[in-house]
Amino acid sequence: MAKDIDWGSLDFSYRPTDYSYVSMYKDGKWDAGKLTAEHTVTMSECAGVLQYSQSCFEGLKAYTEENGKIVCFRPDLNAKRMADSCRRLEMPVFPEDRFLKAVDEVVAANKDWVPPYGSGATLYIRPFMFGYNSVIGVKPADEYMFRILVTPVGPYFKGGAKPVVVRIPDFDRAAPHGTGGIKAGLNYAMSLHPIMEAHREGFNENMYLDPATRTKVEETGGANIIFIKDGGKTLVTPKSDSILPSITRRSICYIAENMLGMKVEHRPVMYSEVPEFEEMGLCGTAAVISPVGKIFDHGKEIDIPSGMEKMGPTLQKLYDTLTGIQMGRIAGPEGWVHEI
Ligand code: PLP
Ligand code: COI
């Protein structure tokens, strides 16, 4: 029986569900893993994650399709990206096939928490891993905990699909040759001060420029960026090693090129080019496609032509196609939608 929740009023916040998944890495190997109803973690005060932030995570969603099936979207790419994050952080990889089985298992065990079709809510799935045992010298932990928590969520930005306002911060999110291209918890710690400052100034998000020259567009704290030009015929999206390779962005580019007949340019994007674009959107698992209406840059304003009232027509088409595939209304490429 579905939980008695007002799904339509959910925001993007954590509430514990029935089960999480947990597996421990010790003596050089992962244990068998299991579901757990315990949502608290106890560990050494000197754990690697507490002292040196050795942690990484993933984010994906489970949806109820129109026909009632529970599915998630391209989980194989999350498994692969988490493996990349682990390698960069000197953490053991949780095998990708086990990652996929664990996602299936934990979503199935929490099926009553998967919001119904049409509710606007989804079940957010958060796999994460961290250094568990004590370390005092700067070195990787020897023991790790891998967990998956799930939690029902509504829209990431308050106000749903209303265009948001971003600002150019004085801070960088990532360093050249740093960890911007992986999903390390430390990247998000770095973004907390700039995001709070943005909120205090009345903006929704920060649009980071490239850390080396501050002349190119990178991404926001939690989403990649897409631009539309040529009367809706072309999608432009920044390419950089310090941007997280968004699964949503890669899917949108595929849809634009192969389903909507658009041209896709994945290349460095100069900040000075931005006034030429007609529409701008933030894309990611949490953000889906959230339109941007304005950019603030130290008192100067760039108004995106599609405006502050609603999503522009091309982003709307991309949004409808992407969410249509995720919700089972539109047939997508083989393997994108995974039934639980
Ligand atoms: N960029 C950052 C910094 C993110 O945290 C996320 C969220 O995962 C994304 C982009 C979007 O990635 P994805 O579409 O894989 O969720
Ligand atoms: C996601 O989109 O899954 C994210 O991780 C973004 C954000 C919640 C940090």
Automatic annotation (TrEMBL):
<dbReference type="InterPro" id="IPR043132">
    <property type="entry name" value="BCAT-like_C"/>
</dbReference>
<comment type="pathway">
    <text>Amino-acid biosynthesis; L-leucine biosynthesis; L-leucine from 3-methyl-2-oxobutanoate: step 4/4.</text>
</comment>
<dbReference type="InterPro" id="IPR001544">
    <property type="entry name" value="Aminotrans_IV"/>
</dbReference>
<dbReference type="InterPro" id="IPR036038">
    <property type="entry name" value="Aminotransferase-like"/>
</dbReference>
<dbReference type="Pfam" id="PF01063">
    <property type="entry name" value="Aminotran_4"/>
</dbReference>
<comment type="pathway">
    <text>Amino-acid biosynthesis; L-isoleucine biosynthesis; L-isoleucine from 2-oxobutanoate: step 4/4.</text>
</comment>
<dbReference type="GO" id="GO:0004084">
    <property type="term" value="F:branched-chain-amino-acid transaminase activity"/>
</dbReference>
<keyword id="KW-0663">Pyridoxal phosphate</keyword>
<dbReference type="GO" id="GO:0009099">
    <property type="term" value="P:L-valine biosynthetic process"/>
</dbReference>
<feature type="modified residue" description="N6-(pyridoxal phosphate)lysine">
    <location>
        <position position="183"/>
    </location>
</feature>
<dbReference type="InterPro" id="IPR043131">
    <property type="entry name" value="BCAT-like_N"/>
</dbReference>
<comment type="similarity">
    <text>Belongs to the class-IV pyridoxal-phosphate-dependent aminotransferase family.</text>
</comment>
<dbReference type="InterPro" id="IPR033939">
    <property type="entry name" value="BCAT_family"/>
</dbReference>
<dbReference type="InterPro" id="IPR005786">
    <property type="entry name" value="B_amino_transII"/>
</dbReference>
<dbReference type="GO" id="GO:0009098">
    <property type="term" value="P:L-leucine biosynthetic process"/>
</dbReference>
<protein>
    <recommendedName>
        <fullName>branched-chain-amino-acid transaminase</fullName>
        <ecNumber>2.6.1.42</ecNumber>
    </recommendedName>
</protein>
<keyword id="KW-0032">Aminotransferase</keyword>
<dbReference type="GO" id="GO:0009097">
    <property type="term" value="P:isoleucine biosynthetic process"/>
</dbReference>
<keyword id="KW-0808">Transferase</keyword>
